[in-house]
């Protein structure tokens, strides 16, 4: 790494949603083919992680998501030679509940469908996971990890940038 290069990880959010012993996943088209993921996506400019996870869950599942707890910060690095890409993801994972699917609302582009899987079913198809973080987040939820939502602080400067100088 050249001294002037700065490490720029990709900040994402993910929603872990359980009903009974089943977890809501999305089946999505990726450069590596059709993969399974938690409802997840990138934090956009001016957006708090909490706002991002609510938006991403709605876009990918067509269901309103209500965050209830913070699960943790997860990191993973991927080398994608086909795209000359070396990217590190920082995933902020939240757990919560969803309402019913909103009639007439389309799933986000690239999302083929949503499905509910048990932890065992999810573990049995690890080769189809978009990342190893998919299963880790669900395992942490199943183990009882819950942190307060205010563990993640978003300063107001996200929407109204501070002017220095």
Keyword list:
7-stranded mixed β-sheet, Phosphatase NudJ, NudJ, single chain, globular, alpha+beta, Nucleoside Triphosphate Pyrophosphohydrolase, 165 residues, 3 helices
CATH architectural group = Alpha-Beta Complex
Residue share in β-strands:
35-45%
From the 3D structure, determine the CATH topology.
Nucleoside Triphosphate Pyrophosphohydrolase
The CATH class label is Alpha Beta
Rg calc: 16 Å
Helix run count: 3
- Mind telling me the CATH superfamily name? Nucleoside Triphosphate Pyrophosphohydrolase
Number of strand elements: 7
Provide the residue-averaged pLDDT: 94
Distance between the termini: 30 Å
Walkthrough of the structure:
The protein has helices at 49-61, 119-124, 133-142; strands at residues 10-19, 22-30, 33-37, 40-42, 65-80, 85-98, 111-118. The protein is α+β, with helices and mostly antiparallel strands and 165 residues long. The model has no long low-confidence stretch (mean pLDDT 94). It starts with 9 loop residues before the first strand and ends in a 23-residue tail after the last helix. Strands 1, 2, 3, 4, 5, 6 and 7 form a 7-stranded mixed sheet that branches. It has a single domain (10-148), classed as Nucleoside Triphosphate Pyrophosphohydrolase. The relative contact order is 0.24. It has 3 helices and 7 strands.
């Amino acid at each position: 790494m050249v001294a002037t290069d700065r490490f720029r990880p990709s900040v994402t959010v993910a929603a872990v949603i359980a009903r009974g012993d089943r977890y809501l996943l999305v089946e999505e088209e990726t450069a590596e083919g059709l993969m399974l993921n938690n409802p997840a996506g990138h934090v956009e400019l001016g957006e708090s992680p909490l706002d991002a996870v609510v938006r991403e869950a709605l876009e990918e599942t067509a269901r309103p998501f209500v965050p209830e707890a913070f699960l943790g910060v997860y990191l993973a690095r991927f080398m994608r030679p086909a795209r000359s890409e070396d990217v590190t993801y920082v995933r902020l994972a939240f757990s919560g509940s969803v309402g019913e699917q909103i009639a007439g609302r389309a799933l986000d582009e690239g999302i083929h469908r949503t499905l509910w899987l048990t932890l065992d079913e999810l573990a049995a198809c690890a080769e189809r996971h978009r990342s190893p973080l998919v299963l880790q987040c669900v395992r942490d939820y199943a183990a009882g990890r819950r942190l307060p939502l205010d563990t993640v602080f978003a300063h107001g400067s996200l929407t109204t940038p501070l002017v220095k100088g």
